[in-house]
Amino acid sequence: MTYAFRLDAAACTGCKACQVACKDENDLPTGMLWRRVYEIGGGSWARCGEAWTNDVFAWSLSLACNHCVHPKCAGVCPTDAYLVRPDGIVIIQAEKCTGCGYCAWACPYDAPQLDPGIGRMTKCHLCAHRLDLGLPPACVAACPLRCLELIQVDDAEPQGRGMALWHLPGEEHPFPLPAFSRTEPHLLLLPHPASGRSASAAQVNNREEIAPLGRQPVHQELPLLAFSLLAQGAAGLMVVVFLLDLCLGYTQYTGLTLPPLLTVGGLLTAALAVAFLHLGTPGNAWRMLAHLQKSWLSREVLCLSAFGVTWALAAGLRLLGVGAPAWSLVAGLSALCGAAVIQSMHQIYRLRSVPGWNTVRTLAEFVLTALSLGCLLTALLLPVHAVPAQVMRVLIAGALAAFSGSALLCLAATGGNNRRLSLVRLVLAGLGIAASTLLLLLPAPPPGAMAGLFLLALIEQALGRWLFYDRRKPNL
Protein backbone atom coordinates (compact mmCIF):
# COMPACT_ATOMS: atom_id res chain seq x y z
CA MET A 1 0.00 0.00 0.00
CA THR A 2 1.31 3.42 -0.95
CA TYR A 3 0.18 6.96 -0.22
CA ALA A 4 -0.59 9.90 -2.49
CA PHE A 5 -1.69 13.48 -2.01
CA ARG A 6 -5.07 14.40 -3.50
CA LEU A 7 -5.59 18.10 -4.09
CA ASP A 8 -8.80 19.72 -5.28
CA ALA A 9 -7.40 22.97 -6.64
CA ALA A 10 -10.87 24.26 -7.48
CA ALA A 11 -11.79 24.19 -3.76
CA CYS A 12 -8.50 25.59 -2.43
CA THR A 13 -8.83 29.16 -1.14
CA GLY A 14 -5.09 29.69 -0.72
CA CYS A 15 -5.39 30.17 3.04
CA LYS A 16 -1.97 28.49 3.50
CA ALA A 17 -3.00 26.64 6.64
CA CYS A 18 -1.28 23.55 5.20
CA GLN A 19 1.92 25.52 4.63
CA VAL A 20 1.94 26.92 8.15
CA ALA A 21 1.09 23.55 9.74
CA CYS A 22 3.95 21.85 7.91
CA LYS A 23 6.40 24.53 9.01
CA ASP A 24 5.20 24.32 12.61
CA GLU A 25 5.14 20.51 12.79
CA ASN A 26 8.67 20.16 11.48
CA ASP A 27 10.14 23.26 13.17
CA LEU A 28 11.54 24.54 9.88
CA PRO A 29 13.97 27.48 9.90
CA THR A 30 13.06 30.90 8.60
CA GLY A 31 12.67 30.92 4.83
CA MET A 32 12.28 27.15 4.44
CA LEU A 33 8.97 25.69 3.25
CA TRP A 34 8.50 21.99 2.59
CA ARG A 35 4.92 22.65 1.43
CA ARG A 36 4.42 25.72 -0.72
CA VAL A 37 1.16 27.34 -1.81
CA TYR A 38 1.56 28.90 -5.24
CA GLU A 39 -0.60 31.93 -5.99
CA ILE A 40 -1.28 31.78 -9.72
CA GLY A 41 -2.97 34.52 -11.66
CA GLY A 42 -3.18 36.28 -14.97
CA GLY A 43 -5.43 37.90 -17.48
CA SER A 44 -5.99 41.53 -18.39
CA TRP A 45 -8.56 44.22 -19.08
CA ALA A 46 -9.73 45.30 -22.53
CA ARG A 47 -11.89 48.23 -23.64
CA CYS A 48 -15.10 47.25 -25.41
CA GLY A 49 -16.88 50.40 -26.59
CA GLU A 50 -17.75 52.43 -23.52
CA ALA A 51 -17.15 49.51 -21.17
CA TRP A 52 -14.19 47.51 -19.94
CA THR A 53 -14.13 43.71 -19.87
CA ASN A 54 -11.61 41.38 -18.34
CA ASP A 55 -10.48 37.80 -18.38
CA VAL A 56 -8.65 37.98 -15.05
CA PHE A 57 -8.25 34.72 -13.14
CA ALA A 58 -6.56 33.54 -9.94
CA TRP A 59 -6.17 30.22 -8.16
CA SER A 60 -3.90 28.44 -5.68
CA LEU A 61 -1.87 25.25 -5.87
CA SER A 62 -0.48 23.53 -2.76
CA LEU A 63 2.54 21.33 -3.47
CA ALA A 64 5.15 19.44 -1.48
CA CYS A 65 7.33 16.41 -2.20
CA ASN A 66 5.25 13.99 -4.28
CA HIS A 67 7.12 10.86 -3.10
CA CYS A 68 7.44 9.68 -6.70
CA VAL A 69 7.41 6.10 -7.92
CA HIS A 70 10.78 6.79 -9.55
CA PRO A 71 12.26 9.58 -7.39
CA LYS A 72 14.94 11.37 -9.38
CA CYS A 73 16.43 12.73 -6.17
CA ALA A 74 17.19 9.22 -4.97
CA GLY A 75 18.59 8.20 -8.34
CA VAL A 76 21.19 10.96 -8.57
CA CYS A 77 22.31 11.09 -4.93
CA PRO A 78 26.01 10.10 -4.84
CA THR A 79 25.90 8.83 -1.26
CA ASP A 80 22.66 6.85 -1.71
CA ALA A 81 21.21 8.88 1.17
CA TYR A 82 17.60 8.47 0.03
CA LEU A 83 15.47 5.65 1.40
CA VAL A 84 12.19 4.60 -0.23
CA ARG A 85 9.99 2.89 2.35
CA PRO A 86 7.67 0.00 1.41
CA ASP A 87 4.74 2.42 1.58
CA GLY A 88 6.40 4.68 -1.02
CA ILE A 89 7.52 7.44 1.35
CA VAL A 90 10.88 8.90 0.24
CA ILE A 91 13.08 9.85 3.19
CA ILE A 92 16.53 11.46 3.38
CA GLN A 93 18.95 9.65 5.69
CA ALA A 94 20.66 12.70 7.15
CA GLU A 95 23.70 10.78 8.40
CA LYS A 96 24.68 10.01 4.78
CA CYS A 97 23.97 13.40 3.17
CA THR A 98 26.84 15.66 2.08
CA GLY A 99 24.63 18.65 1.32
CA CYS A 100 25.89 18.79 -2.27
CA GLY A 101 22.45 19.87 -3.54
CA TYR A 102 22.48 17.64 -6.62
CA CYS A 103 19.09 16.17 -5.70
CA ALA A 104 17.60 19.68 -5.70
CA TRP A 105 18.82 20.17 -9.28
CA ALA A 106 17.32 16.88 -10.41
CA CYS A 107 13.91 17.11 -8.73
CA PRO A 108 11.31 18.53 -11.16
CA TYR A 109 9.20 19.71 -8.22
CA ASP A 110 11.86 21.63 -6.23
CA ALA A 111 11.25 19.44 -3.17
CA PRO A 112 14.74 18.91 -1.63
CA GLN A 113 16.14 22.00 0.06
CA LEU A 114 19.44 22.68 1.76
CA ASP A 115 19.25 23.58 5.43
CA PRO A 116 22.34 25.79 5.94
CA GLY A 117 22.12 25.31 9.67
CA ILE A 118 22.86 21.58 9.49
CA GLY A 119 24.55 21.49 6.08
CA ARG A 120 22.24 18.76 4.76
CA MET A 121 19.33 18.43 2.37
CA THR A 122 15.83 18.25 3.81
CA LYS A 123 12.33 17.78 2.41
CA CYS A 124 8.80 16.60 3.21
CA HIS A 125 8.77 13.09 4.70
CA LEU A 126 4.97 12.84 4.60
CA CYS A 127 4.94 13.18 8.40
CA ALA A 128 5.93 9.52 8.61
CA HIS A 129 6.10 9.81 12.39
CA ARG A 130 2.42 10.79 12.43
CA LEU A 131 1.40 8.12 9.93
CA ASP A 132 3.06 5.47 12.08
CA LEU A 133 0.76 6.60 14.89
CA GLY A 134 -2.32 6.47 12.68
CA LEU A 135 -2.52 10.27 12.28
CA PRO A 136 -2.70 12.21 8.99
CA PRO A 137 0.14 14.51 7.89
CA ALA A 138 0.05 17.94 9.52
CA CYS A 139 -0.78 19.69 6.26
CA VAL A 140 -3.76 17.42 5.61
CA ALA A 141 -5.05 17.78 9.18
CA ALA A 142 -4.87 21.58 8.96
CA CYS A 143 -6.77 22.03 5.68
CA PRO A 144 -10.11 23.69 6.70
CA LEU A 145 -11.92 22.79 3.45
CA ARG A 146 -10.52 19.25 3.21
CA CYS A 147 -9.36 19.99 -0.33
CA LEU A 148 -5.97 18.44 0.53
CA GLU A 149 -6.21 14.76 1.42
CA LEU A 150 -3.97 11.74 1.81
CA ILE A 151 -5.25 8.73 -0.08
CA GLN A 152 -4.06 5.16 -0.34
CA VAL A 153 -3.33 3.87 -3.82
CA ASP A 154 -1.91 0.77 -5.41
CA ASP A 155 0.01 0.39 -8.65
CA ALA A 156 -3.17 0.70 -10.69
CA GLU A 157 -4.44 4.01 -12.01
CA PRO A 158 -6.44 5.91 -9.38
CA GLN A 159 -10.16 5.97 -10.12
CA GLY A 160 -12.56 8.87 -9.94
CA ARG A 161 -12.75 12.51 -10.97
CA GLY A 162 -9.55 14.36 -11.64
CA MET A 163 -6.20 13.37 -13.05
CA ALA A 164 -3.14 11.46 -12.01
CA LEU A 165 -0.16 13.41 -13.31
CA TRP A 166 1.78 10.29 -14.23
CA HIS A 167 -0.94 9.17 -16.64
CA LEU A 168 -1.32 12.37 -18.65
CA PRO A 169 0.71 13.66 -21.59
CA GLY A 170 2.99 16.57 -20.79
CA GLU A 171 0.88 19.24 -22.50
CA GLU A 172 -2.05 18.57 -20.13
CA HIS A 173 -0.13 19.39 -16.98
CA PRO A 174 -1.42 22.67 -15.54
CA PHE A 175 0.87 25.63 -15.00
CA PRO A 176 3.27 25.84 -13.17
CA LEU A 177 3.87 22.08 -13.01
CA PRO A 178 6.68 20.75 -15.22
CA ALA A 179 5.76 19.56 -18.69
CA PHE A 180 6.88 16.04 -17.92
CA SER A 181 6.21 13.51 -15.17
CA ARG A 182 8.65 10.69 -15.80
CA THR A 183 9.14 10.36 -12.05
CA GLU A 184 5.49 9.26 -11.69
CA PRO A 185 4.57 11.50 -8.73
CA HIS A 186 2.08 10.28 -6.17
CA LEU A 187 -0.19 13.26 -6.71
CA LEU A 188 -3.83 13.21 -7.77
CA LEU A 189 -4.71 16.72 -8.87
CA LEU A 190 -8.25 17.92 -9.48
CA PRO A 191 -7.54 21.01 -11.57
CA HIS A 192 -9.00 24.47 -11.17
CA PRO A 193 -11.20 25.56 -14.12
CA ALA A 194 -8.65 28.27 -14.95
CA SER A 195 -5.74 25.81 -15.04
CA GLY A 196 -6.32 25.31 -18.76
CA ARG A 197 -5.01 28.80 -19.45
CA SER A 198 -1.66 28.79 -21.21
CA ALA A 199 1.54 29.33 -19.27
CA SER A 200 2.08 32.56 -21.22
CA ALA A 201 -1.17 33.93 -19.74
CA ALA A 202 -0.42 32.83 -16.16
CA GLN A 203 2.27 33.65 -13.66
CA VAL A 204 3.24 32.83 -10.09
CA ASN A 205 2.49 35.97 -8.09
CA ASN A 206 4.27 35.02 -4.85
CA ARG A 207 7.59 33.78 -6.23
CA GLU A 208 9.60 35.58 -3.54
CA GLU A 209 7.63 33.77 -0.81
CA ILE A 210 7.83 30.22 -2.10
CA ALA A 211 11.38 30.28 -3.51
CA PRO A 212 13.21 27.31 -1.93
CA LEU A 213 15.70 28.27 0.74
CA GLY A 214 18.25 26.03 -0.97
CA ARG A 215 17.96 27.87 -4.30
CA GLN A 216 21.50 28.92 -5.07
CA PRO A 217 22.11 32.30 -6.75
CA VAL A 218 24.88 32.22 -9.32
CA HIS A 219 27.39 33.89 -7.02
CA GLN A 220 26.93 31.08 -4.50
CA GLU A 221 27.92 28.57 -7.17
CA LEU A 222 31.44 30.03 -7.33
CA PRO A 223 33.02 26.90 -5.77
CA LEU A 224 31.47 24.79 -8.55
CA LEU A 225 32.52 27.35 -11.16
CA ALA A 226 36.12 27.22 -9.95
CA PHE A 227 36.06 23.42 -9.58
CA SER A 228 34.82 22.84 -13.13
CA LEU A 229 37.37 25.22 -14.67
CA LEU A 230 40.27 23.75 -12.67
CA ALA A 231 39.32 20.11 -13.32
CA GLN A 232 38.68 20.66 -17.02
CA GLY A 233 41.88 22.66 -17.35
CA ALA A 234 43.82 19.82 -15.71
CA ALA A 235 42.21 17.27 -18.02
CA GLY A 236 42.91 19.37 -21.10
CA LEU A 237 46.52 19.96 -20.07
CA MET A 238 47.10 16.23 -19.51
CA VAL A 239 45.66 15.38 -22.92
CA VAL A 240 47.82 18.01 -24.63
CA VAL A 241 51.01 16.82 -22.89
CA PHE A 242 50.28 13.23 -23.90
CA LEU A 243 49.48 14.14 -27.50
CA LEU A 244 52.68 16.18 -27.78
CA ASP A 245 54.65 13.16 -26.69
CA LEU A 246 52.71 10.75 -28.88
CA CYS A 247 52.24 12.70 -32.10
CA LEU A 248 55.18 15.08 -32.16
CA GLY A 249 57.87 12.83 -30.75
CA TYR A 250 58.26 15.06 -27.74
CA THR A 251 60.00 12.46 -25.58
CA GLN A 252 63.31 14.12 -26.32
CA TYR A 253 62.08 17.23 -24.50
CA THR A 254 61.58 15.41 -21.21
CA GLY A 255 62.75 18.31 -19.09
CA LEU A 256 60.40 20.71 -20.83
CA THR A 257 57.27 18.59 -20.43
CA LEU A 258 57.77 18.24 -16.70
CA PRO A 259 56.42 21.73 -15.74
CA PRO A 260 53.08 21.19 -17.59
CA LEU A 261 52.84 17.71 -16.11
CA LEU A 262 53.36 18.98 -12.56
CA THR A 263 50.88 21.78 -13.22
CA VAL A 264 48.24 19.12 -13.91
CA GLY A 265 48.69 17.88 -10.37
CA GLY A 266 48.45 21.39 -8.96
CA LEU A 267 45.23 22.11 -10.84
CA LEU A 268 43.72 18.79 -9.83
CA THR A 269 44.62 19.33 -6.16
CA ALA A 270 43.12 22.82 -6.22
CA ALA A 271 39.96 21.49 -7.88
CA LEU A 272 39.43 18.88 -5.18
CA ALA A 273 40.07 21.44 -2.43
CA VAL A 274 37.56 23.89 -3.93
CA ALA A 275 34.97 21.11 -4.34
CA PHE A 276 34.82 20.68 -0.56
CA LEU A 277 33.66 24.30 -0.24
CA HIS A 278 30.48 23.37 -2.09
CA LEU A 279 29.51 20.61 0.37
CA GLY A 280 27.32 21.38 3.35
CA THR A 281 28.79 18.40 5.22
CA PRO A 282 32.34 17.77 3.89
CA GLY A 283 32.87 15.05 6.49
CA ASN A 284 30.58 12.77 4.48
CA ALA A 285 32.53 13.22 1.25
CA TRP A 286 34.01 9.73 1.63
CA ARG A 287 30.54 8.33 0.97
CA MET A 288 30.32 9.78 -2.54
CA LEU A 289 31.35 6.53 -4.25
CA ALA A 290 28.40 4.69 -2.72
CA HIS A 291 26.02 5.04 -5.69
CA LEU A 292 28.07 4.20 -8.77
CA GLN A 293 25.20 2.17 -10.17
CA LYS A 294 23.01 5.21 -10.88
CA SER A 295 24.63 8.50 -9.87
CA TRP A 296 26.83 10.33 -12.38
CA LEU A 297 28.19 12.38 -9.49
CA SER A 298 29.54 9.18 -7.93
CA ARG A 299 31.04 8.28 -11.30
CA GLU A 300 32.65 11.71 -11.58
CA VAL A 301 34.34 11.18 -8.21
CA LEU A 302 35.59 7.79 -9.42
CA CYS A 303 36.94 9.31 -12.64
CA LEU A 304 38.66 12.11 -10.70
CA SER A 305 40.25 9.56 -8.38
CA ALA A 306 41.48 7.49 -11.31
CA PHE A 307 42.77 10.64 -13.00
CA GLY A 308 44.72 11.59 -9.88
CA VAL A 309 46.25 8.14 -9.43
CA THR A 310 47.31 7.76 -13.07
CA TRP A 311 48.69 11.31 -13.13
CA ALA A 312 50.80 10.55 -10.04
CA LEU A 313 52.19 7.45 -11.76
CA ALA A 314 52.95 9.40 -14.95
CA ALA A 315 54.65 12.20 -13.01
CA GLY A 316 56.67 9.67 -11.03
CA LEU A 317 57.88 7.93 -14.18
CA ARG A 318 58.84 11.28 -15.73
CA LEU A 319 60.77 12.33 -12.62
CA LEU A 320 62.62 9.01 -12.75
CA GLY A 321 63.48 9.60 -16.39
CA VAL A 322 61.43 6.68 -17.68
CA GLY A 323 60.44 7.24 -21.31
CA ALA A 324 58.39 5.36 -23.88
CA PRO A 325 56.70 2.96 -23.93
CA ALA A 326 56.04 2.80 -20.16
CA TRP A 327 55.53 6.55 -19.71
CA SER A 328 53.42 6.88 -22.85
CA LEU A 329 51.15 4.06 -21.71
CA VAL A 330 50.56 5.54 -18.25
CA ALA A 331 50.22 9.09 -19.61
CA GLY A 332 47.73 7.90 -22.20
CA LEU A 333 45.70 6.19 -19.49
CA SER A 334 45.77 9.40 -17.45
CA ALA A 335 44.65 11.45 -20.45
CA LEU A 336 41.81 8.98 -20.98
CA CYS A 337 40.75 9.38 -17.35
CA GLY A 338 40.83 13.16 -17.82
CA ALA A 339 38.51 12.83 -20.80
CA ALA A 340 36.25 10.60 -18.68
CA VAL A 341 36.10 13.38 -16.06
CA ILE A 342 34.78 15.81 -18.68
CA GLN A 343 32.24 13.29 -19.94
CA SER A 344 31.01 12.54 -16.42
CA MET A 345 30.66 16.28 -15.73
CA HIS A 346 28.61 16.57 -18.90
CA GLN A 347 26.30 13.76 -17.79
CA ILE A 348 25.87 15.34 -14.35
CA TYR A 349 24.39 18.47 -15.88
CA ARG A 350 22.21 16.75 -18.49
CA LEU A 351 19.09 16.98 -16.34
CA ARG A 352 15.58 17.14 -17.78
CA SER A 353 14.63 19.38 -14.87
CA VAL A 354 17.09 22.03 -16.13
CA PRO A 355 16.36 22.59 -19.84
CA GLY A 356 19.13 25.19 -20.07
CA TRP A 357 21.70 22.47 -19.33
CA ASN A 358 20.07 19.50 -21.01
CA THR A 359 21.59 20.16 -24.45
CA VAL A 360 24.70 19.15 -26.37
CA ARG A 361 25.87 22.72 -25.78
CA THR A 362 26.93 21.65 -22.27
CA LEU A 363 29.42 19.10 -23.61
CA ALA A 364 30.66 21.61 -26.19
CA GLU A 365 31.35 24.20 -23.49
CA PHE A 366 33.26 21.74 -21.31
CA VAL A 367 35.37 20.47 -24.22
CA LEU A 368 36.18 24.02 -25.34
CA THR A 369 37.29 24.89 -21.80
CA ALA A 370 39.63 21.91 -21.71
CA LEU A 371 41.00 22.71 -25.19
CA SER A 372 41.50 26.41 -24.50
CA LEU A 373 43.12 26.12 -21.06
CA GLY A 374 45.06 22.97 -21.95
CA CYS A 375 46.70 24.42 -25.06
CA LEU A 376 47.45 27.85 -23.60
CA LEU A 377 48.78 26.53 -20.29
CA THR A 378 51.15 24.25 -22.18
CA ALA A 379 52.29 27.09 -24.44
CA LEU A 380 52.75 29.34 -21.39
CA LEU A 381 54.81 26.79 -19.45
CA LEU A 382 57.11 25.77 -22.31
CA PRO A 383 60.04 28.13 -23.06
CA VAL A 384 59.50 29.60 -26.53
CA HIS A 385 63.20 29.54 -27.41
CA ALA A 386 63.51 25.82 -26.63
CA VAL A 387 60.37 24.60 -28.37
CA PRO A 388 60.09 23.87 -32.12
CA ALA A 389 58.02 26.52 -33.91
CA GLN A 390 55.58 23.91 -35.23
CA VAL A 391 54.77 22.78 -31.69
CA MET A 392 53.91 26.31 -30.59
CA ARG A 393 51.80 26.81 -33.72
CA VAL A 394 49.78 23.69 -32.95
CA LEU A 395 49.07 24.97 -29.44
CA ILE A 396 48.06 28.41 -30.69
CA ALA A 397 45.86 26.81 -33.35
CA GLY A 398 44.12 24.83 -30.61
CA ALA A 399 43.46 28.07 -28.71
CA LEU A 400 42.14 29.66 -31.91
CA ALA A 401 39.72 26.76 -32.36
CA ALA A 402 38.52 27.16 -28.76
CA PHE A 403 37.97 30.91 -29.11
CA SER A 404 36.09 30.32 -32.37
CA GLY A 405 33.89 27.69 -30.74
CA SER A 406 33.07 30.02 -27.84
CA ALA A 407 32.13 32.80 -30.28
CA LEU A 408 29.82 30.44 -32.16
CA LEU A 409 28.14 29.37 -28.92
CA CYS A 410 27.58 33.00 -27.98
CA LEU A 411 26.06 33.76 -31.37
CA ALA A 412 23.87 30.64 -31.23
CA ALA A 413 22.48 31.47 -27.77
CA THR A 414 18.76 32.22 -28.00
CA GLY A 415 18.00 33.29 -24.43
CA GLY A 416 19.46 34.13 -21.09
CA ASN A 417 19.02 36.73 -18.38
CA ASN A 418 22.36 38.48 -18.81
CA ARG A 419 22.68 39.63 -22.39
CA ARG A 420 25.30 42.23 -21.50
CA LEU A 421 27.57 39.60 -20.02
CA SER A 422 27.01 37.43 -23.10
CA LEU A 423 28.06 40.35 -25.28
CA VAL A 424 31.19 40.88 -23.18
CA ARG A 425 32.07 37.22 -23.60
CA LEU A 426 31.54 37.45 -27.35
CA VAL A 427 33.87 40.46 -27.52
CA LEU A 428 36.53 38.61 -25.52
CA ALA A 429 36.23 35.58 -27.79
CA GLY A 430 36.60 37.88 -30.81
CA LEU A 431 39.74 39.42 -29.32
CA GLY A 432 41.07 35.92 -28.71
CA ILE A 433 40.45 34.96 -32.33
CA ALA A 434 42.25 38.08 -33.57
CA ALA A 435 45.21 37.63 -31.19
CA SER A 436 45.59 33.91 -31.96
CA THR A 437 45.48 34.56 -35.70
CA LEU A 438 48.14 37.26 -35.37
CA LEU A 439 50.40 34.97 -33.34
CA LEU A 440 50.10 32.28 -36.00
CA LEU A 441 51.36 34.76 -38.61
CA LEU A 442 54.42 35.74 -36.57
CA PRO A 443 57.61 33.66 -36.65
CA ALA A 444 57.55 33.35 -32.85
CA PRO A 445 55.30 34.73 -30.10
CA PRO A 446 56.68 37.96 -28.57
CA PRO A 447 57.51 37.99 -24.83
CA GLY A 448 54.40 38.02 -22.67
CA ALA A 449 52.07 37.22 -25.58
CA MET A 450 51.16 33.74 -24.35
CA ALA A 451 50.54 34.99 -20.81
CA GLY A 452 48.19 37.67 -22.11
CA LEU A 453 46.37 35.21 -24.34
CA PHE A 454 45.97 32.74 -21.47
CA LEU A 455 44.56 35.46 -19.20
CA LEU A 456 42.10 36.46 -21.92
CA ALA A 457 40.99 32.83 -22.34
CA LEU A 458 40.62 32.35 -18.59
CA ILE A 459 38.39 35.40 -18.21
CA GLU A 460 36.32 34.41 -21.25
CA GLN A 461 35.82 30.86 -19.95
CA ALA A 462 34.97 32.10 -16.45
CA LEU A 463 32.29 34.39 -17.91
CA GLY A 464 30.97 31.47 -19.93
CA ARG A 465 30.71 29.32 -16.82
CA TRP A 466 28.92 32.11 -14.93
CA LEU A 467 26.40 32.29 -17.75
CA PHE A 468 26.14 28.50 -17.67
CA TYR A 469 24.98 28.45 -14.03
CA ASP A 470 22.74 31.43 -14.70
CA ARG A 471 20.77 29.31 -17.18
CA ARG A 472 19.26 27.25 -14.37
CA LYS A 473 15.72 28.45 -13.74
CA PRO A 474 13.18 27.43 -11.04
CA ASN A 475 11.38 24.20 -11.88
CA LEU A 476 8.16 25.49 -10.33
Shape: elongated
Main β-sheet description: 4 strands, mixed
Low-confidence runs (pLDDT<50, min 5 residues)? 158-163, 166-171
- Number of beta strands: 13
What is the overall pLDDT average? 87
- Our estimate of the beta-strand percent is 5-15%
Number of helices in the DSSP assignment: 14
Based on CA atoms alone, the radius of gyration comes out at: 27 Å
Report how far the terminal alpha carbons are from each other. Answer: 29 Å
Task: Report the order of strands and helices.
Answer: EHEEEEHEEHEEHHEEEEHHHHHHHHH
Strand order of the largest sheet: 10-1-12-11
Q: Helical content, roughly?
A: 40-55%
Structural class: alpha+beta
Summarize this structure briefly.
The chain has 476 residues and is an alpha+beta fold.
Write up what this structure looks like.
With about 475 residues, the chain is of the alpha+beta class. The chain is about 45% helix and about 10% strand. The strands form 5 sheets. The chain has a 4-stranded mixed β-sheet. A 3-stranded antiparallel β-sheet has the order 5-2-13, with no helix packed on it. A two-stranded antiparallel sheet has the order 3-4. Strand 6 and strand 7 form a beta hairpin. Helix 7 (about 220-245) runs antiparallel to helix 8 (about 255-280) and helix 9 (about 295-320) runs antiparallel to helix 10 (about 325-350). The longest helix has 26 residues, at about 220-245. It is elongated. It starts with a strand and ends in a 6-residue tail after the last helix. The model is unreliable at about 160-165 and about 165-170 (pLDDT under 50).
